[in-house]
């Protein structure tokens, strides 16, 4: 498929004598996400940092026998603790086979980072030397893969990066690097399996992944999370959904498919009909049905021009849907989005969940994890985002109702689930505009598919429902 697609593209550009345009396209960076969308925590081509890594394919040096920083590096626990990203330009499937992760690749995209297997939430300490070891093989033939240790958030700077040529023979590979940047508490190991060339690359098996701190010593702890001085308790607005229809004095609807699937290649068509109010609940239903060119329908509501707020506590009590490709959200955007655009307007994701792992595919459970993040534009014009996650001890978020909230003041945005704080982000950097110091409006939506969550699979069931008990805003 990839050979045909790329060959036809090249022939087309030859025929129209657009060689310059083709060269420009080949060098261009991936498009930024559009307004009112969610941005995946993925890893673009890394910017190397630290000392030059030393590659050691097969049998070079003596591997340590203890101190592996990578939990579940042998995939005995399935995909537990591992992340997965596939660009819309690529197609790949992952499974655990005989204790290895196997990545089948029908289309390897246009860049190495278009397919990734990631181990997040590692701490890499300034001044220390590390060694990454892993087993790898292809499902036939020879290809290159990228092995990366670096930031798990934008700007995804690499501390150590090496490209390896692998074959169908299982081989142990390694490289070392020295961290010369400040200690990074949000680091990851990433295997980048996409292919920038015209020829389709074979699939990849990975196993026994280990990262060792060769220097050793105590691992520093991040600075303690700030907490709010007080929790606003004066209720200034709420929708308790006690009527029989959506209250149009509070909410309007976004209708349609948006540009490029709301900037994220989402699959649903948003309608008013998929949002209903009964028995004290707002219910947003995602349905698998053919409607105006889309294969799914759902709803997206917003308070733009009706209810807008600056600072305070914004809270929702809700029961989430579940399943691969299911993506509920409770979030805000700056009231001036239509004039300044996104991300300069600012975005606060109070709650997102990218579903998966509960419908039969137990290798990667995501239905138990709440995600929060901020999106904004720096004064240099770059989009930036940071976030936090909270994973339930048992069960999934579909098992019952939970409260999701932020406390937002002049200095920080603090994030809570069921009254337990799990995030705090300062909003006073000099390199920011006023994204979080102006009025925001509230949005509720249930997306189906997209760049970040991926797409429904054979385990995803429909209809899926997102039930909201209330939305409340408290201020001082």
Describe the structure.
With 476 residues, the chain is mainly β. The chain folds into two domains: 171 residues, Sandwich (Jelly Rolls), CATH 2.60.120; 242 residues, Sandwich (Jelly Rolls), CATH 2.60.120. It is 7% helix and 43% strand. The chain has four helices and 29 strands. Strands 12, 14, 15, 16, 17, 20, 25, 26, 27 and 29 form a ten-stranded mixed β-sheet that branches. Strands 13, 18, 19, 21, 22, 23, 24 and 28 form an eight-stranded antiparallel β-sheet that branches. A hairpin with a 3-residue loop joins strand 25 and strand 26. The protein is globular.
Compile the SSE list and pairings.
Layout: H1 2-15, H2 19-27, E1 54-55, E2 83-86, E3 91-97, E4 100-107, E5 115-124, E6 129-138, E7 143-151, E8 158-166, E9 171-178, E10 184-192, E11 204-213, E12 234-239, E13 252-253, H3 261-265, E14 268-270, E15 275-278, E16 281-291, E17 294-298, E18 300-302, E19 308-309, E20 312-319, E21 326-334, H4 337-340, E22 347-352, E23 369-377, E24 383-391, E25 402-408, E26 412-417, E27 420-426, E28 440-448, E29 464-475
Parallel strand pairs: 14-17
Antiparallel strand pairs: 1-9, 2-5, 3-4, 4-11, 5-10, 6-9, 6-11, 7-8, 7-10, 12-29, 13-18, 15-16, 16-17, 16-29, 18-28, 19-28, 20-25, 20-29, 21-22, 21-28, 22-23, 23-24, 25-26, 26-27
């Amino acid at each position: 498929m990839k050979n045909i697609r790329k060959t036809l593209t090249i022939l087309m550009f030859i025929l129209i004598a657009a060689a310059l345009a083709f060269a420009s396209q080949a060098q261009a960076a991936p498009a930024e996400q559009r307004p009112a969308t969610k941005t995946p925590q993925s890893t673009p081509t890394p910017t190397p940092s630290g000392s030059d890594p030393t590659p050691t394919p097969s049998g070079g040096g003596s591997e340590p026998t203890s101190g592996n920083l990578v939990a579940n590096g042998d995939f005995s626990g399935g995909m537990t603790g591992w992340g997965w990203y596939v660009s819309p330009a690529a197609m790949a499937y992952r499974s655990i086979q005989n204790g290895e992760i196997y990545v089948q690749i029908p289309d390897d995209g246009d860049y190495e980072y278009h397919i990734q297997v990631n181990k997040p939430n590692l701490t890499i300490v300034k001044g220390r030397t590390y060694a990454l070891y892993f087993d790898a093989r292809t499902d036939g033939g020879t290809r290159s893969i990228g092995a990366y240790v670096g930031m798990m958030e934008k700007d995804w700077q690499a501390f150590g990066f090496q490209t390896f040529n692998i074959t169908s023979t299982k081989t142990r590979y390694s490289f070392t690097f020295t961290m010369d940047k400040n200690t990074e508490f949000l680091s990851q190991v990433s295997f980048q399996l996409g292919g920038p060339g015209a020829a389709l690359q074979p699939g990849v098996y990975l196993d026994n992944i280990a990262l060792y701190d060769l220097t050793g010593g105590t691992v520093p702890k991040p600075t303690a999370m700030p907490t709010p001085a007080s929790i606003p308790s004066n209720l200034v607005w709420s929708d308790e959904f006690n009527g029989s229809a959506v209250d149009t004095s509070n909410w309007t609807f976004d209708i349609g498919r948006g540009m490029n699937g709301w900037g994220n290649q989402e699959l649903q068509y948003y309608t008013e009909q998929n949002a209903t109010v009964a028995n004290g609940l707002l219910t947003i239903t995602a349905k698998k049905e053919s409607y105006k060119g889309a294969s799914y329908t759902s709803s997206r509501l917003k308070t733009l021009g009706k209810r807008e707020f600056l600072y305070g506590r914004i809270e929702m009590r809700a029961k989430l849907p579940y399943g691969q490709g299911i993506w509920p959200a409770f979030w805000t955007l700056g009231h001036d989005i239509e004039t300044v655009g996104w991300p300069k307007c600012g975005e606060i994701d109070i709650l997102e969940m990218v579903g998966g792992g509960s419908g039969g595919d137990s290798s990667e459970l995501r239905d138990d994890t709440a995600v929060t993040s901020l999106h904004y534009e720096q004064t240099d014009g770059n989009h930036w985002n940071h976030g936090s996650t909270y994973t339930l001890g048992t069960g999934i978020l579909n098992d019952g109702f939970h409260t999701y909230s932020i406390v937002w003041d002049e200095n920080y945005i603090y994030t809570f689930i069921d009254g337990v704080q799990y995030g705090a982000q300062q909003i006073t950097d000099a390199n920011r505009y006023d994204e979080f110091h102006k009025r925001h409006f509230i949005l509720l939506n249930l997306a189906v598919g997209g760049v970040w969550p991926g797409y429904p699979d054979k385990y995803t069931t429909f209809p899926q429902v997102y039930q909201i008990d209330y939305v409340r805003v408290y201020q001082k």
